Amino acid sequence: MEKVLKPMSGYLALVFCLVLFAGAVYFFISGVEQSITYVIIAMLCFLLFCFFLKGLMIIQPNHSRVLNFFGKYVGTVKDNGLFFINPLYSSQKMSLRSENLQGQTLKVNDKMGNPIEIAVVMVWKVGDTYKAAFDVERYSDFVRMQSEAAVRHLAMSFPYDNLEDDHAPITLREGGDKINSILEQELTDRLSKAGIVIQEARISHLAYASEIAGAMLQRQQATAIVAARTKIVEGAVGMVDLALKKLSEENIVELDDERKAAMVSNLMVVLCGEKAAQPILNAGTLYN
């Protein structure tokens, strides 16, 4: 469990170290000229200077120091400035800044078994220095490996789109914020054991794998064409029905079933054709 320490200010200890160093220089020079005792005092002052100097530490903004005393966790210093700690403590520097991780593009199968390419970008930082320092070997490597595992699990949990699974509530391509929220939760669950806080995670690259990209593009185009044709036919049928009703209600012309069929056929050709219909002057009648 992380324990935050508030060490004493290091300015007084710095002055004391400077006094010891000045004393060591003074007694060494005096000892060379007068007595060996001064040289011994100078050596003691210099040893004390080195000992207390080891207890001084400077912590930059958004950095911390994890302290240990002969293998026992003492605490973490998160304040900024010059501090003095027990010189026998060992310290480990740890950054608390937010970091970006641009994951490599992974090739993985989606829920329907289609090979896709996916990559994510995430923003993370160390939240619990104890877990980051002692619960995992190297927390930066742990973040990279677990983020890759989370992306693979996400890709295999959902289809790329709803071409094959029409009833899929969420797809990777259209999931948007929902997919990103699921990804963030997946990363949080995996990285919390290392004391890592996920601030943001987004899919940065998503596409079919190159070996099936062409086939899937043709399939998407065919689906779009069929959908468009369906709308055109629905609209044309409505317009033909409206035309027949108007002609009948306003008694513009009386049409028997055969003439109605011919009119419907002509209107459907005009409304559903890809090109503009060419007018043809008919000098005869339908029956001769």
Number of strands: 11
- Class of secondary structure makeup: alpha+beta
* Strand line-up across the major sheet: 1-5-4-7
Mind telling me the C-alpha Rg?
39 Å
- Looking at CATH, the homologous superfamily of the largest domain is Band 7 domain
CATH topology of the largest domain: Tetrahydropterin Synthase, Chain A
* Uncertain regions spanning at least 5 consecutive residues: none
Helix tally? Answer: 7
Residues in helix, %: 40-55%
How far apart the termini lie comes to 98 Å
CATH class of the largest domain: Alpha Beta
Instruction: Give helix and strand order, one letter per element, not per position.
Output: EEHHEEEEEEEEHHHEHH
Number of structurally distinct domains: 3
Beta-strand percent range = 15-25%
| Overall shape | rod-shaped
Mean of residue pLDDT values:
82
What is the CATH architecture descriptor of the largest domain? 2-Layer Sandwich
Major beta sheet, specifics?
4 strands, mixed
Care to describe what's here?
The protein starts with a strand and ends in a 16-residue tail after the last helix. It has helices at 11-33, 36-54, 129-135, 139-157, 177-191, 210-249, 257-272, and strands at residues 4-5, 8-9, 56-59, 63-69, 72-77, 81-84, 90-95, 99-102, 106-109, 115-126, 196-208. The chain is rod-shaped, with a radius of gyration of 39 Å. The chain folds into three domains: 10-93, no CATH class; 99-210, Tetrahydropterin Synthase, Chain A, CATH 3.30.479; 213-272, no CATH class. The strands form three sheets. It has a four-stranded mixed beta sheet with strand order 1-5-4-7, covered by helices on one side. Strands 8, 9, 10 and 11 form a four-stranded antiparallel beta sheet that branches. A three-stranded antiparallel beta sheet has the order 2-6-3. The protein contains seven helices and eleven strands. Helices cover 48% and strands 22% of the residues. The chain has 288 residues and is of the alpha+beta class. One of its GO terms (cellular component) is membrane. It is a single-pass membrane protein. InterPro entries: Band_7 (IPR001107), Band_7/SPFH_dom_sf (IPR036013).
